[in-house]
Amino acid sequence: MSRFSLLHLEHEEVLLESLQATLRPLFDAEEKARPAMDCRLFVASRSLYCEPRDASICLTRFPFKQMPTEPAEWSDGASIVLRALKRVEFFPNRPVVHQKSPQTLIVAPKHTQVPKLLALLKELWQISQKSKHANDPIERGLLAAIVQPRLQETFDKSRLVDFRERILAGATSVLSVERVEPMVNSPGVLVLTDKRLYFQPARVNNLQGTRVVSSWDVAAVAGFAKRRYMQEQRGLEVAFTGGGAVLLAFRDGRDARDEAFQRLAELLPALAQGAGDALADACARWQAGALSNYDYLWLLNRAADRSLDDLTQYPVFPWVLCDYESPALDLADPAVFRDLAKPVGALNPRRLAVLKERFATMDPAGDPPPFLYGTHYSSPAAVLFFLVRERPAEMLRLQSGSWDAPDRMFHSVAGAWANVTTNQADVKELVPQFYSGDGAFLVNHKALDFGRRESDGQRVGDVVLPPWAASPADFVRQLRAALESDAVSRQLHAWIDLVFGCKQTGAEAARADNVFFHLTYEGSVDPARLADAERASFETQVMEFGQTPKKLFAAPHPPRSGGPGAVLGAPLEDTYVVAAAAAAAASEEADWPALPSEAPAGAAAHRVAVTGVLDDGAGGILSVAMDGSLVRTSGIRGQVTQRVRISKLALSCATRFGDELVLGGWDNAVHRYSASAGRVVGVIEMHEDAVACLSARASLLVSGGWDACVRVWNAGFEPVCAFHSHAGPVVAVALASDERRVLSSSTASAAVLLHDVRVGPDAVLQCDAGGGGAVLAWAGATRALTAARLGGVRLFDLRKPASALLRSGEEGWAPTQLQCNGKAVAVGDASGRVHAGALDALESLAFESCVVARLDGEVTALAASARAIVAGTAKGKVYTIAAVKPT
């Protein structure tokens, strides 16, 4: 893998060629050349980069401007000689080193003609001598003759995956685009066919050295949207069901972008619904408490053109706490929360008074117009300030190869908060990583040497956490709890007004002390009307200041009406009376068939542990396993009739949802499998770690993951809400028949939590299952069953304090799986036994008299229907324990 990346280039520098060569350096202090070394050379617009094949030798940059003489042909006729006064040395995750020792470079290209390479080097050297500085208009004009022909190329139709594909966009007119990634843009052409989306890179910033074309299956598109890029409506972002997205900026402007968008909309009409309708729906769900604060802010960021691929428009989240000094965090104390009705710059009255005094002296008709804050709450520098430990190469690119001074680095959370509330040049808000994930961005995993602070002599390493945080993961967990708290829910609409709404611009912004430098606002300048030099200067300003989000709301945003306080204020008993009445009105599930005293022979469906089983309704079993496959077995002997590889990683759970099978796995994804189509029709990646468990009813799906998160989805597989109350991986979920309540269990403790979809992020009840990692089942409208290896089987009444009504267990009994239909209970255990009995005789469940099957291996999956009870074991076998003949 190449050590050179586009992040090594200077700002506005572009890569033109790459080639294999040998290089012999001759230093002035030496009498003869050193031995030649094999390397790869990268010819860029301002420099020659050398990447030695020997990884112990550093990557080096030789600027053309530091070459006193023109490149020339060497005496052997097969080499080129260059004279370099200075060089820049690159080391992984370290600031660059500038060396001033003059040297002569003798370059022998291996597969490139010397005259052709020499002509390019001479032309670049001459341009460097004529330009006074980087980004000089002279440089840009002269380089255009070299760069433009490399950009203006048509799509090579031989690159189509299938020659029968019909080109819908990019066939008659070239759609010139730039693929936008953090700190790097790669130009190319875009083509849309009826089957795939293609990006063919240009001969500029093409690291591959060959015409490697990227393509994406149209069937895998999860959504697409118009995006603003560099204050122009010329961006298009396409998201994929397997996770990830591609952000494209159209070089020919809005019309070209709109053409591509229209072709996509015609090809995928179901995904082209109005963004306004989706935003209104999300707002209503958030108001009702059916969408978490975190998820709603994510949706607003996306609607406002914020993207993880564009550091000038990175998603922005608010500081919600102001207490980073106390030994314990008390979310019941209003004093620990920041005032969300004020922008960060207005939180300190003294600082605000100074800023307003300057504002009053500025000419309203002047250039620039008056502003309170000369910096911004979100910019590339602000984002990388927080994320430098995870993304050092991007920070080095932004800082021209160096770290910031140690005293200005992100050293402690308390220090960062103190700075944004006192420093006139610092009004940063937060990035989403503060509220999701394991806090890895706070840890100096790469052992980066940021130096020592002059203020206190401390070395900048891991971020110093508040005393109330036990670890980075605990810090994020508590901060997330604060974001989802009642106090924040009551105020969040006010912050939305400042960032996305009516107080973002105009008189309302001035009254709210929310006025930023004018170039951060959409519409302040029309970049399309700027000359090239002016446009480059403007884009540099955007890189420095960032961009204010697109304005989403012209009127004040409504407050949350269905948050935790609104629902939890009512007695829990009243909530469950309504739920019980709804459950009683619903039709009861059919009784299980009579159970035999022994099980038939198992079918060898997998070679590894079965993790999920379902009755296929036709005498067979559907099963998933650690091998990532979905298998159908049928017939008396359980022959394997279908095997589908769903994932390269393990699958961990399966359930039915509507007409589809839904499968969760270690690839952090929820896979939608259509039996009628015989293939995966969608992949959803919202969890940040493995999906461990699933539960579904008519219109809701619940997923739990190792990221300690429980997520709820509607029938359209859109997020409804999420719960983050567990301290560790969630291993079991169970959705009630009324689709309002969710049980979940974690391996980190014996706790089983009850959530209400209507209430919000916090659990409304907690039960003790007696051992970590309980499996769960509902036992009617108001009761719940748990089964845990250490705690046996327990029955709880959820209308009362969470102590068990009944317990069933015996020494050495380790239940692993549980099913209940409200009348009968089936339990699988670690020894391979399956127990079954009446719910009202739960106390005797574990005894031998209730064993209905003895299977080969630990019971790792169990499912029940009116037709059959089916099971899977750790040895890869599946069993039908009870069955009736299908009609």
Q: Please, could you describe this protein's structure?
A:
- The chain contains 15 helices and 45 strands.
- Strands 5-6-9-1-2-3-4-7-8 form a 9-stranded antiparallel beta sheet, covered by helices on one side. Strands 10, 11, 12, 13, 14, 15, 16 and 17 form an 8-stranded antiparallel beta sheet that branches. Strands 18-45-44-43 form a 4-stranded antiparallel beta sheet, with no helix packed on it.
- α1 (114-130) packs antiparallel against α2 and α7 (380-387) packs antiparallel against α8.
- 45% of the residues are buried.
Identify the notable features of this structure and list them briefly.
alpha+beta, 9-stranded antiparallel β-sheet, 15 helices, 8-stranded antiparallel β-sheet, 887 residues
State the gist of this model.
This protein has 15 helices and 45 strands.
Low-pLDDT windows of residues: 562-590
Q: Biggest sheet: strands side by side, in what order?
A: 5-6-9-1-2-3-4-7-8
Can you count the beta strands?
A: 45
Shape: globular
Estimated share of beta-strand residues: 25-35%
The major pleated sheet works out as: 9 strands, antiparallel
Distance between the termini: 59 Å
Instruction: List the total number of helices.
Output: 15
Structural class: alpha+beta
Tell me the Rg in angstroms.
Answer: 31 Å
Provide mean pLDDT, rounded.
85
Measured as a percent range, the helix fraction is 10-25%
